[in-house]
Amino acid sequence: MFLFRTVKFRSSSFLTTYKMCSHFSFSKNKTFINGKWVSAKDGKEFPVYNPADGSIVANVPDCTVSELNEAIEGSYDAFKTWKNTTAKERSAILRRLFDLQMKYKDDLARILTLEAGKSLAESVGEISYGASFFEWFSEEARRIYGDIVPSPVKSRQMFFYKQPVGVAGIITPWNFPNAMITRKVGAALAAGCTCVIKPAEDTPLSALAIAQLAEEAKVPPGVINVVTSSRNNTPAIGKGMCEHLKVATISFTGSTAVGKLLLEHSAPFVKRVSLELGGNAPFIVFNSANVSKAVAGAMASKFRNSGQTCVCTNRILVQEDVYDEFCKELTKVMQNQLVVGNGMDSNVTVGPLINENAVKKVNSHVEDALQKGAKLILGGKPHSTGKTFFEPTLLTDIKQNMLICKEETFGPVAGVMKFKSEEEAIEIANSTRSGLAGYFYSEDVSQIWRVAQALEVGMDLIKLNSRIYLNPKGFHVTLR
After folding, report:
1. Rounded distance, CA 72 to CA 66, Å?
2. Of 190, 239, 198, 220, which is closest to residue 86 (Cα–Cα)?
3. Which end of the chain is more exposed for a tag (fewer CB within 10 A), N or C?
4. How far apart are CA 96 and CA 360, in angstroms?
């Protein structure tokens, strides 16, 4: 991804919950810059809301470009020494971060659920997933090898070695507030880069919790910085990060619209930019597929985090011979497995959406589909639990002219479309400018090879004989 060269919250509901994990704490109303917990210079703060009930979980500093510049300068100074640490030293620090994240797994998961709304079980899963990046890069840090290349000239020797580029500006989304940071920070630290992290304004607490882990892991001051800001200040922070001459690379996960802006801001400085943007993932079920396994896959890829993931299934395409069977079984499984409610409740599988605007978008997609001829099987409206909840919804007879096919829905709505031929499915799947991920189920080996190569997505998830294979474009699927 990166190139080389005692918290006390104001919400009484949170205080009640937080007693269960009181042995993990981070400073109240502070952000983390140059190894210190600090307030915004003007003293301003902004609230972090629990999407399940609208209560204020905490208030955090509303930083401006002034605090950003301070973090960048400190990170640049730290880079001067951090880049000279040995691979073994960086590996040891990353391993400590992994160990600490796993030690406080349950605590971190509760914090995540309170600010992001996802079910506690999913939050625990994200913390483990996020920790795995620290573990992975702790091992990869020691494998940053150079090369010796045969020279075309006898009197010369050609050798190549890798160097960290400098300060990494990291901008992360709200839907995976832990894992999206650890994935980027782990890579940066392993390479010898330092970091300035701008977490999403909806979910800054998980970023601050990672900063606390960094402090406990003895990460040198300035190597990891967190700059929190409200929605109003976020555009200036992003622009300032892209335009600062001491930021060497930008890594962003989020919407396509924001990604384009960051690329535009970075272009005059010819800055290295890594973007993971919006998706519109197809989920294809061929006649040869095992329908029960396909339904299980659709449940996992569609309703994870209430449908709020960038690789979430957005269009379910089912071949005509198994269409009715698939829809019938999916209906049954949705009714039996999906429980809506506060993510802190142990039996809940579908939590709230991140805010009321998200509910409005999901509702508009459903209404548009129904107006254009879709059939409503389940759900279809905001949930009675609260303003940020939406009923798990199943729509059939979906058509390409519907918003649900053109845009990311980002909610618990499954839309199923019927197709006749393999060629038609591929054409529909590729009829979007967003190609982050794609899924398909088949037990026809020849078809698997054809479709894997034909899908224009960043990665394919293929189910074959009960095994799952991830196929990043440019590599090959390994059949075993």
Report:
1. 10
2. 190
3. C
4. 42
**Within 13 Å, how many C-alpha atoms sit on residue 412's CB side?**
31
Q: Which amino acid is at 416?
A: V
State how far the Cα of 234 lies from the Cα of 298, in Å rounded to an integer.
35
| Amino acid (one-letter) located at 302 | K
Helix (H) or strand (E) holding 368: helix 356-371
- The pTM assigned to this predicted structure is 0.89
> Beta partners for 378?
394
What is the predicted pLDDT for the residue at 459? 58
Q: How far apart (Å, rounded) are the C-alpha atoms in residues 77 and 173?
A: 27
Residue 310: what residue type?
A: C
So which residues are the catalytic ones? 276
Output the CA torsion 115→118→120→121 (10° steps).
Answer: -150
Give the rounded distance of the alpha carbon of 415 from its chain centre. 22
To which residue do tokens 């069977």 refer? Answer: 325
